[in-house]
Write the structure tokens for this entry.
Amino acid sequence: MGIDVEAHLARIEEDGYTVLPDVIPLDVVDALVEDLRRLERELGAMPSDNSFEGGKTLRIYNLLAYGGLWADVPIHPDVVPIIWGVLGDNPLISSISAIAIGPGERAQPIHADDQAMPLRRPSVPVVCNSMWALTDFTEANGATRLLPGSHKADHSPPYGESVEGTIAAEMSKGSILVWNGSLWHGGGANTTDDTRIGIAMNYCAGWIRQQENQQLGIPADVMATFSPELRDLCGLGVYKGLIGHIDKRTPADRLYGDPPMPNLFDVT
């Protein structure tokens, strides 16, 4: 039995976020954690040690470039309908990265994910992001902190300043947090001896450029293994039958022979 998409969309509309409890099979969670540990070793991952990324947090970006299990993350069947409901037709992957908050990490500054965009606020949603809990998320171990309703504010939070009224988005391993990109939030402080591991699976409206350039950042041989749906999310499709076309064809059609999409010039 699937989730109640409309109920989750109503929560995002009102509060700015929703939690999908226990929607990732635990064997998938464990496999993702195992692969993250492999990548951390092979890439020699180290904390960036800045105010935003943290001094005791390991991050691995552009996870789709590693193929395998990661190709299933952006197209989770419970998440995708919510993303479409928030952002409208043909959303894109903005970024997919691992965030492992280590013991002793300080709280991340409260921010909005669309904060760098010169938008009059509140605006139509242009970013909708999600956090996959690969461990339990608790207030003590650094669960994402949220300010409910702040997506309706007429400004973004002043970076680095204290924000009152935030709550911890606690959730069990295998759950997914989804939020409007205008919502004020940030990673919490980890006061435990364990690492809090999450996957930030982020999306943007179809007319927004991605944070990570999926088209060039993912090797062609890896992209060839993706499904047409995933290639479309990576930006090889066309928005509204026009934006991003190549000679009135989608890039995925031209490069990989994916099914053609109706072109605006052909249907108007």
